[in-house]
Design a protein that fits this description.
- It is a single chain.
- The chain is globular.
- The longest helix has 16 residues, at about 185-200.
- The model is unreliable at about 255-269 (pLDDT under 50).
- Helix 7 (about 185-200) links the parallel strand 6 and strand 7 (about 200-205).
- The protein has helices at about 25-35, 35-40, 70-75, 110-120, 125-140, 155-165, 185-200, 210-215, 235-245, and strands spanning about 5-15, 40-55, 60, 85-90, 95, 170-175, 200-205, 220-225, 225-235, 265-269.
- It has one domain (about 55-260): P-loop containing nucleotide triphosphate hydrolases (Rossmann fold).
- The chain has 9 helices and 10 strands.
Length: about 270
């Protein structure tokens, strides 16, 4: 019988927006008593979302920018907490969400490997045993002993992915950071993801590249403006998305810039 490892029960997440800047004392008092202005300062990134992911599944989380995908991943990885609802996670979770996330900029790549391991509950001895494999996979050469702040985005992604897949995860979250890597390394990462699938690791995969989604996933969860629009067979869900955009005369949402869905500079968590 399938065992649930990720469960969302009626989950909602609200952010307070700070992009409506008050430019005068008068505007401050007006905003305090103006319900319309107060309402514009709140944003529901997820609205009453429920789904269950079972052990060993590879599931795509799809939708355009602002749909709530990255918010869902941050909730699963406990970077942020839900405003409403319940999230249940069962198993060691490894996440590759944003470039540089989990890295200390003043520490070297080698030191950050041990730091990430300790965060995930692995001992220094355990990480020492994995160190050579992590460094070899990342393939950043002598930069492994250079502070992370001097890394390019591609080097950060290489090291972050290598750590994420070598810490014996039971659940792994991957959020579009592979888009910054070169083709050769992308193929190397996809091959590694295949290996994790064969080992029964649960994978939640976010990408705007529908070809990658179809290749890797059997199931897709579709979010649109924070609302769950579809959950099922990957070809069926992606087909619905494509038909929706075609019927509205819009371009298919296959590619996207790597903007965060809610800019942190405009959000009060």
């Amino acid at each position: 019988m399938s065992r649930p490892v990720i469960t969302f029960e009626n989950v909602s997440k609200e952010f307070k927006l700070s992009n409506l800047r008050v430019r005068s004392l008068q505007e401050m008092f007006v905003s305090m008593f103006n319900k319309e202005m107060r309402g514009k300062r709140r944003f529901w990134a997820l609205d009453n979302v429920s789904f269950t992911i079972n052990a060993g599944e590879t599931v795509a989380l799809v939708g355009t920018n602002g749909s709530g995908k990255s918010t869902a991943l941050k909730l699963i990885s406990r970077i942020i907490d839900p405003t409403l609802g319940t999230i249940t996670i069962s198993g060691r979770l490894s996440a590759l969400l944003e470039l540089g996330a989990g890295f200390h900029p003043d520490l070297s790549g080698r030191e950050n490997i041990f730091l990430n391991g300790s965060i995930l509950g692995l001992s220094r001895r355990e990480m020492s045993q994995k160190l050579d494999a992590i460094i070899d996979f990342a393939d950043i050469g002598e930069f492994i002993d250079v502070p992370i702040r001097n890394y390019s985005s591609g080097m950060q992604m290489r090291l972050g992915f290598s750590v994420a897949v070598h810490v014996d995860p039971q659940i792994i979250l991957v959020d579009e950071v592979l888009a910054v890597g070169d083709h050769k390394f992308q193929q190397k990462c996809l091959k590694r993801i295949r290996k994790l699938q064969n080992e029964g690791v649960t994978i939640l995969f976010v990408s705007h590249d529908f070809d990658d989604v179809r290749e890797l996933c059997n199931r897709a969860i579709w979010l649109d403006h924070g609302v769950l629009q579809g959950d099922g067979d990957v070809n069926e869900v992606l087909g619905r998305i494509e038909n929706t955009y075609e019927s509205n005369g819009q371009a298919k949402p296959l590619l996207s810039s790597n903007k965060t869905e809610v800019e942190l500079s405009k959000v009060e968590l």
